[in-house]
Write a structure and sequence with these properties.
Blueprint: E1 8-9, H1 12-15, H2 18-27, E2 31-40, H3 47-69, E3 80-82, H4 84-89, H5 100-110, E4 114-125, H6 131-150, H7 152-159, H8 165-179, H9 181-197, H10 210-220, H11 226-235, H12 237-258
Parallel strand pairs: 2-4
Antiparallel strand pairs: 1-4, 2-3
Helix pairs in contact: 3-11, 3-12, 6-8, 9-10, 11-12
Length: 260
């Protein structure tokens, strides 16, 4: 079973490798789900699409590879081969949850199955091109993260002896991108308060208050920090760092504006 939305695609040269996926899953029947990396085919449409594509490609390739090292690669709605019999055994997709895709992976773990991530196939996907349209996926991801954390599903996974500790820790880590965003707002207001009422200046007064602003900027871009590793992997150290510096203003203005 390969879930595909209307914004997903696959190139012929990638599709010819699909039998290798089926053979790999047949060899290890305890793998209930194999997730693949993605490339975004709308990245050149606008600077908003470029910012979304940058975060998405880094997430679906480098970040999910890291999660897979800990056995904590979930399912995020696209580009995964899923065993139909296993999906039925764990109750399928619970569509009354905002993040029913990630919940499916958690239920696979609770049933004793594993998930995997591979990159010998990259599937294509389209992303939103405008700022207002971008609220749809980003809003859904943040809502789904909060729903899982506050509900009984994550508590059930953390209490289970079938999930080893590295998987539990990385599951929480993957969900924490949105839960730490209030800290960004706090540091930004703390910086403004220090600037107005404490006499913040790099020359006089409380110069170390600048660290509040720097901390707010860095925390706001935590979700994109893995993108630096992604660029270094693709184009090398010097070019990767330079391209990330060029991308940073777009990422900052776009994702910080999304926080409220």
């Amino acid at each position: 079973w390969l879930p595909f939305d209307s914004n997903a695609s696959v190139r012929f040269e990638e599709a010819v490798r699909i039998p290798a996926v089926l053979a790999e899953m047949k060899e290890n029947p305890m793998v209930g789900l194999t997730l693949f990396g993605e490339y975004i085919n709308t990245k050149d449409y606008s600077w908003v699409a470029e910012a979304l594509a940058f975060g998405e490609e880094a997430w679906t390739q480098v970040m999910q590879r890291i999660l897979d090292m800990f056995g904590a690669c979930g399912f995020y709605g696209h580009s995964a081969f899923i065993r139909t019999d296993v999906t039925k055994a764990v109750g399928g997709l619970s569509h009354f949850y905002g993040s029913e895709d990630l919940l499916l992976a958690i239920r696979l773990w609770l049933a004793g199955y594993d998930t995997a991530h591979r990159e010998y196939i990259l599937f294509g996907k389209g992303r939103e091109r405008g700022y207002l349209a971008s609220h749809v996926p980003l809003g859904r991801w943040s809502e789904g993260s909060a729903e899982l954390i506050l509900g009984r599903q994550i508590d059930r996974a953390l209490r289970s002896n079938l999930l080893h500790m590295p998987r539990k820790m990385m599951l929480i880590y993957a969900l924490s991108f949105f839960t730490k965003k209030p800290i960004v707002v706090f540091f930004n207001y703390l910086y403004l308060f220090a600037f107005i009422f404490v006499g913040l200046s790099p020359f006089v007064g409380y110069m170390y208050g600048l660290l509040f602003g720097v901390a707010g900027i860095l925390i706001s871009q935590a979700i994109n920090s893995i993108g630096l590793l992604y660029l270094i992997e693709k184009v090398g150290m010097l070019r990767g760092v330079w391209q990330f510096i060029q991308m940073f203003p777009k990422l900052y203005f776009f994702f910080v504006a999304e926080i409220p």
